[in-house]
Write a structure and sequence with these properties.
It is a single chain. By secondary structure, this protein is an all-beta fold. It has a domain at 23-71: SH3 type barrels (Roll). Helices cover 0% and strands 48% of the residues. It is built from no helices and seven strands. The chain has a four-stranded antiparallel β-sheet with strand order 1-4-5-6, with no helix packed on it. A three-stranded antiparallel β-sheet has the order 3-2-7, with no helix packed on it. Strand 2 (27-31) and strand 3 form a beta hairpin.
C-alpha cells in the first residue's frame, strides 16, 4: 500500500506554493479529463490557480477543473 499525505490549504493562508526540488517540476496538477500539468510553483487566486510553467509563463486553471494536486517525493 502506497502512503499518501494530504493538506488542506486556505487561499488566505498563502499566496504561493513552491516545490523545494530544483531538478525537476515536482508538483503535479491533475485536471479533470485526464490532462496533467507539472510545475515547481503555483499561486492561489480565489476561484483559480495560477500555474507557473517555465520561467516566464503562467496559466490560470479554475478550481472546478482540478482533480488533484500532488507533490513528488
Amino acid at each position: 500500500m502506497k502512503r499518501r499525505s494530504y493538506a488542506v490549504i486556505a487561499p488566505e493562508d498563502t499566496a504561493e506554493i513552491r516545490s523545494s526540488a530544483t531538478d525537476s517540476d515536482s508538483i503535479r496538477i491533475r485536471l479533470k479529463g485526464g490532462s496533467d500539468l507539472r510545475c515547481k510553483e503555483f499561486s492561489l487566486n480565489g476561484d483559480s490557480v495560477a500555474v507557473k510553467l517555465g520561467s516566464a509563463s503562467k496559466v490560470e486553471v479554475r478550481w472546478s477543473d482540478i482533480e488533484s494536486i500532488s507533490f513528488a517525493q
